[in-house]
Amino acid sequence: MSLFFRSLMPKVSVVALLTGVAMCAQAAPIDGIYRSVDDKTGVSKALIQMKTLPSGEVTGKIIRIIVTKGYNPKTVCTDCPAPYTNQPIAGIQVITGMKPVSGSPGEYESGKILDPKSGKIYSCTLAMSPDGKKLKVHGYIGFAALGRTQWWYREDHPEKYTGIDAK
Hints:
This protein has one domain (32-165): Lipocalin (Beta Barrel). It is built from one helix and nine strands; from the N terminus they run αβββββββββ. It has one helix at residues 3-25, and strands at 32-37, 44-52, 58-66, 93-100, 107-115, 120-128, 134-140, 147-154, 163-165.
C-alpha cells in the first residue's frame, strides 16, 4: 500500500465513524399510523395517526377502533372531561402537547394522553424504538416511575384492520 493511502486511511475511518454515529442518532420520524395494544390483555384496540405539527408538537388521533371477535369496544367517550365528553372515540385526539426531548432523538415529553375507556387524562412520554417500528407510550400521574406503559406498533397496512372509522 502506498504512503499516500496509508496516510489517508485514518482520516477516512474517522469520517466513516462520525457518519455512522450521526446516522444512529437520528430517529425515525414519529409521523405515521400505529396500532395500540392493551398492555393487560394483549388485544389490539385502535389505530392512531401520529402527526408532527409545524410547531414541532406531536399529537395522536384515533382514526379507527379495531373490532375483533369477542371484543365489544366502547364507541363514545362518556366518562371523558370536556371537550371530549360524549364525543365519538373514533376521531378523538388522545395525545396532545408532546415535545421532542432535546438531545434524545425519538423521545418526547411534556404531553398528555387521554384514556377514552376511563375518561382519565395522564401525563405522557413517548419513545421510538431504534428501528422506528415500535412506539413506547408511558402514561402516569405524578411521577413517571409510577404509571403504565404500552407498546404501539407502526402499521404500514392499516387497511387490514376492520373497525369503526373516524368521520
